[in-house]
Design goal:
The protein is mainly alpha-helical. It has a single domain, classed as Tetratricopeptide repeat domain (Serine Threonine Protein Phosphatase 5, Tetratricopeptide repeat). It is built from five helices and no strands. The radius of gyration is 14 Å and the shape is globular.
């Protein structure tokens, strides 16, 4: 709401507060804000935080970000396999024995 009212800094501050309380929608909103100002690395980091908290929509957004960055192979791997426990793009299915 603040962003639509012309207060992007206020909107970002509120989103940070919500993200600090593990609100993954706020993390995605922050990632979008970072992307809009050209901070792709910051956007990716925020999407990864949301994914780490179980937000599958953030994983889709991360894949879209990779597509827009010209890395369709990585985007497809994210869509198919997600992230490893270490936060890297998985390249296949791995099962614990």
């Amino acid at each position: 709401m603040r962003e639509r009212a012309g207060d992007p800094a206020g909107a970002e501050a509120l989103a940070v507060q919500a993200a600090d309380r593990d609100n993954t929608i706020a993390l995605r909103d922050l990632a979008e804000m970072r992307e809009e100002v050209g901070d792709i690395a910051g956007a990716e980091a925020l999407y990864r935080q949301a994914v780490d908290r179980g937000d599958t929509a953030a994983l889709r957004e991360l894949a879209k970000l990779r597509d827009r960055a010209g890395d369709p192979d990585s985007a497809e791997a994210l869509r198919m396999f997600g992230l490893t426990g270490g936060g890297e793009t998985a390249t296949g299915l791995e099962f614990d024995s």
